[in-house]
Amino acid sequence: MRTPMLAANWKMNKTVAEATAFTTAFLPLVADVADAEIVLAPPFTALAAVAAACRGSDVAAAAQNVHWEPGGAFTGEVSLAMVRDAGASHVIVGHSERRHLFGEDDDAVNRKTRAVLAAGLTPIVCIGETLADREADETAAVLDRQIDGGLAGLAADDVESIVVAYEPVWAIGTGRTATPEQAQQAHAHVRRRLAALAGGAAADRCRLLYGGSVKPANAADLSAQPDVDGALVGGASLDPRSFAKIVDTCRKAV
Ligand code: PGA
């Protein structure tokens, strides 16, 4: 039995005051949720404030990115010691916006994933095909490449403890969601590939989140799929009531 996870990716949104106001409004709405893990990923500047506001609750804080090196001359980058110090327990790695807008490749995703694990935090590793990939019938090949490259060298118990988010690029921020059948098909494929990489038991325990235009209205059908263990939510996670509704809907449907 996999515990569902609902993660909010706020991207480049919310000041410290806005992030704190969200958290203050959101925590009471999910105070009774004991059967799902909830993660908030604010921008770096608001990470410490959100983590502090969540202390004493079951809601965790995540960084949206990290550098794999422990420190040094890397202007504009943030280390794992820094995100841990800010109170994060999770890190989003390889989000499609990092890959497509900032040139992150599978090798960088792999370095980050291994560094996050070595630091004792949980990576949420994002994978997903573009529309061109899907139309060229390349979805499975792209997912395989991202899994094999991004997760290279991970032990079975690492694979068991990470979270993988399948986010078709054509569904992110577009209002166009994968159908529950498309999501299930991709998730089942990802789980099979993880099994080939790390064994069936580890693959079976690894949580696979769906991401891409998840909303309160479509969250139940997506989460009801057997290999969908929750969601990574962008736009619809910016409002506390909307994200709380998604949490409630998903945990009942999983
Ligand atoms: P979206 O973003 O829900 O706004 O499509 C999802 C994501 O990028 O993680």
Describe the structure.
The chain is an alpha/beta fold and 254 residues long. The protein has one domain (5-12, 36-232): Aldolase class I (TIM Barrel, Alpha-Beta Barrel), CATH 3.20.20. It is 46% helix and 15% strand. The chain has 12 helices and 8 strands. The chain has helices spanning 16-29, 44-54, 80-85, 96-102, 106-118, 131-135, 139-150, 156-161, 180-198, 200-205, 219-223, 240-253, and strands spanning 5-9, 37-41, 59-63, 90-93, 122-127, 163-166, 207-211, 230-233. It has an 8-stranded parallel beta barrel, surrounded by 5 helices. Helix 11 links the parallel strand 7 and strand 8. It is globular, with a radius of gyration of 17 Å. The mean pLDDT is 97. 2-phosphoglycolic acid binds next to strand 8.
Task: Tag the structure with descriptive keywords.
globular; binds 2-phosphoglycolic acid; TIM Barrel; 12 helices; 8-stranded parallel β-barrel; alpha/beta; about 250 residues
* Name of the level-1 CATH class: Alpha Beta
Q: What would you say the CATH architecture is?
A: Alpha-Beta Barrel
Radius of gyration: 17 Å
- How much helicity do the residues have? 40-55%
Which geometry do the CA atoms define? globular
What name goes with the CATH superfamily? Aldolase class I
How many helix segments? 12
Mean pLDDT over all positions: 97
Structurally, the number of domains stands at 1
Distance between the termini: 10 Å
**How many E-type strands?**
8
Bound molecules: 2-phosphoglycolic acid
Largest sheet: 8 strands, parallel, barrel
Which structural class do you get from the secondary structure elements?
alpha/beta
Order of helices and strands: EHEHEHEHHEHHHEHHEHEH
Strand order of the largest sheet: 1-2-3-4-5-6-7-8
Examine the coordinates and then state which fold CATH places here, giving the name of the CATH topology.
TIM Barrel
Oligomer state equals single chain
Low-pLDDT sequence parts? none
Strand content: 5-15%
